[in-house]
Write a structure and sequence with these properties.
Helices cover about 50% and strands about 10% of the residues. The chain is built from ten helices and five strands; from the N terminus they run βαβαβαβαβαααααα.
Length: about 230
């Protein structure tokens, strides 16, 4: 994948949109459209086919959560959604991650981190560390039993892949997984890729959520035997 990332900014605050546009375009990133609500965001994505969508979670008419769901289930390409929020443990952020968002950013992010985040998710990387996702899961899994969840049959995984998923859900990086399991980092990357493929997941963020929602790892840190 070459060229500059194509970005849609969806936020009901004009100052936020203007500020983000200035930051991104100054670094050579192409902002192809702006939207003030979820409905406009869906239409902008359909029209411009961006690589990345910066999506505010709280907007009028149609919020960012529902817009994210519709975009990721209906797009004819593979856009990556970054959720924008004022609160790092907003309960809607967890639901958005479950729906397939690549991660989230606080609105007071530095310009350097904003640019880096857009470029990172453009290539399919999860934006936030699994440990942060785990914190979200621990806080909201028990309190939202009827929330949209990802259900997958872990029987498709080999014992080694289940072990990798357990450790990944505890926040270990690929390098840390390699050291813990006495494997080459390239081998760990292969295991992670196979886990995502077998479970039909977009990235490591969703893998962490699945590990908790299926009971493979519990919020107390316990996990099933492999």
């Amino acid at each position: 994948m070459t060229g500059s990332p194509r970005v849609v900014i969806a936020d009901d605050q004009a100052l936020v949109r203007t500020g983000f546009r200035m930051i991104l375009t100054a670094d050579g990133i192409d902002v192809v459209a702006e939207a003030t609500n979820g409905t406009e965001a869906i239409e902008a994505v359909r029209r411009t086919r961006p690589d990345v969508i910066l999506m505010d979670i709280r907007m009028p008419e149609l919020d960012g959560l529902e817009a994210t769901r519709r975009i990721l289930t209906g797009a004819d390409h593979e856009p990556h959604v970054i959720i924008l929020t004022t609160f790092d443990l907003d309960r809607y952020v967890y639901a958005a991650l479950s729906a397939g968002a690549a991660g989230f950013l606080l609105k007071d992010i530095t310009p350097e981190h904003l640019v880096a985040a857009v470029r990172m998710v453009r290539f399919g990387d999860a934006l936030l560390a699994p440990a942060i996702t785990r914190r979200l899961v621990e806080r909201f899994t028990r309190h939202e039993p009827h929330a949209t969840a990802i259900h997958r049959d872990l029987a498709a995984l080999t014992p080694r892949e289940r072990e990798v998923l357990q450790l990944l859900a505890q926040g270990l990086s690929n390098a840390e997984l390699a050291g813990h399991l006495h494997l080459a980092e390239a081998t760990v990357k292969t295991h992670v890729a196979r886990i995502l493929a077998k479970l039909g997941l977009r990235d490591r963020v969703q893998a962490v959520i699945v590990a908790y929602r299926t009971g493979l790892v519990s919020p107390t840190g316990d996990h099933q035997a492999t």
